[in-house]
Amino acid sequence: MMAPPLILARHFTPGRKTKISLLVIHDMEAARSHMTALHVAQWFASIRAPQASAHYCIDSVGVVQCVHDTDTAWAAPGANDQGLHFELAGFARDDKKEWLADAGELQQAAALIAEKCKAYDIPAAFVDAEGLEAGRSGITTHAEVTKWKKTAGGHTDPGAGFPMAEFVAMVKAALAPPNAIAVASGVSPTDSETQPEPACQPSEL
């Protein structure tokens, strides 16, 4: 994945106190569109910005970075120091069908999170509040951090309808070597090498 454009958030803490071990999913509480990631990133950067930020904003067509990985976003108390935080377009009230309907957004997020799993040696596995308490690393949500830290009035995003099992499967697929994907689909990696060349290309017809 190419490096996303950067619109630096107004509020974050330079540097980190500990290594990255959690990839935390949030939702933006904003309607999905091809401009949502850009608009929320601009909001984080503006004079109107709340005392909050995230590392990445994601919608169906793109990703915008708001805080460098090496810096600490103000995103979920209890998981800021060790977390990378990802804001997805949508609402915590959305059901599973609504989340899955925006396949582009989930694919963008899964590809980015797979990249971070590889970069920081983080398992592509969901970690709930109990797992967070046990110190496990992996993929979690703002809601699970709230449960773990028992934050009064805490967040519930990305909501009970977020398709976590399907999303983690997408992350794992993005991490799989091309040959493994081909074998899993029943196609031999050498099939393309053993098939005869067509007599002519479509453009020649």
Describe this structure in words.
- The structure is a single chain.
- This protein is α/β, with parallel strands linked by helices and 205 residues long.
- It has helices spanning 36-45, 96-101, 103-120, 129-133, 142-149, 164-175, 178-184, 191-194; strands at residues 12-13, 22-27, 56-58, 63-65, 72-73, 83-88, 138-141.
- The protein has a single domain, classed as Peptidoglycan recognition protein-like (Lysozyme-like).
- The protein has eight helices and seven strands; from the N terminus they run ββαββββαααβαααα.
- The strands form two sheets. It has a five-stranded mixed beta sheet with strand order 4-3-6-2-7.
- Helix 3 (103-120) packs across helix 6 (164-175).
- The longest helix is centred in the middle third of the chain and has 18 residues, at 103-120.
Give me some keywords for this one.
205 residues; alpha/beta; Lysozyme-like; five-stranded mixed β-sheet; two-stranded antiparallel sheet; 7 strands; 34% helix; disordered C terminus
Number of discrete helical segments: 8
Which outline best applies? globular
- Largest sheet data: 5 strands, mixed
Please name the fourth-level CATH homologous superfamily. Peptidoglycan recognition protein-like
